[in-house]
Amino acid sequence: MQKNILIVVTSASQINSEKSTGLWFSEFAESYLAFSKQGFNITVASPLGGETPIDQNSLSADLHQELLDTEKFLANTTRLDEVKAADYDVIFLPGGHGTMFDLPDNEKLQALLREFYEAGKMVAAVCHGPAALVHAKLSDGKYLVEGKRMTAFTDAEEKAAGLDQFMPFLLESKLRQAGTLFVAAPDWSDHYEVDGQLITGQNPQSTLSVAKEVIARLK
Q1: pLDDT per residue over 39-98, tens digit each?
Q2: 164-179: buried (b, 16+ CB within 10 Å) or exposed (e) per residue?
Q3: Which of 9, 19, 116, 175: CA 20 to 30 A from 136?
Q4: Would 70 be classed as within a structural domain?
Q5: Strand, helix or coil at 68?
Q6: DSSP for 7-49?
Q7: Residue among 36, 48, 40, 41 nearest 9 (CA)
Q8: d(CA 57, CA 43)
């Protein structure tokens, strides 16, 4: 049976009036390519639907054309309100600083995360993608991430990137407050954690590791 993957990306394009942001492109492109090569059906959705803003800092000159070609799948994303968890086997959340602004309090996304998790389906997120999980709660009112071993973009990496002062919160700290067993590797390490059906990667360097773990479990 063919597997269906829901990739949820940010719709947020600004940190403030001076600083633009969006999706960190490689985290989307590397995962999309890895999933598509397995023949999986992929839907790309976002809070607002339509074209996804890409963080221009993530469009480096060394990106292979095969990765750059996936940009067309960000031109007309599905609106999150039109998505049903029952139609998919996995929800995958790539990062970019935009996620910090529009994913944590999106009610539809919070409902989807609960439905995926409680149905025993995989919830996977990379870098700032776990920002979607900071407020996610299960039907019993507990945080979805409470007691879970996981990782995400660390406070140290945020400070090294020079954007800690512009964020609405620090992701590692917020996840720890929600009761996670947070595991931080050295800055920019390829590092991911698995706790049951929750799979999380620390940074852009960890994207393929998370994607490969998702693929291995689906197969």
Answers
A1: 999 999 999 999 999 999 999 888 999 999 999 999 999 999 999 999 999 999 999 999
A2: eeebeebbbebbeebe
A3: 19
A4: yes
A5: helix
A6: EE-----BSSSS-B--B-HHHHHHHHHHHHTTT-EEEEEESS-
A7: 48
A8: 25
Q: What's the CATH code of the domain at 128?
A: 3.40.50.880
pTM of the model: 0.98
Parent domain of 58: 7-218
Asked if the structure places residue 2 within a domain, the reply is no
Nearest to 207 by CA among 39, 57, 32, 36: 32
CA distances from 76 to 48, 55, 79, 120 (A): 10, 17, 9, 29
Is 1 a domain residue? no
Structural domain contains residue 168: yes
How many independent structural domains does the chain possess?
Answer: 1
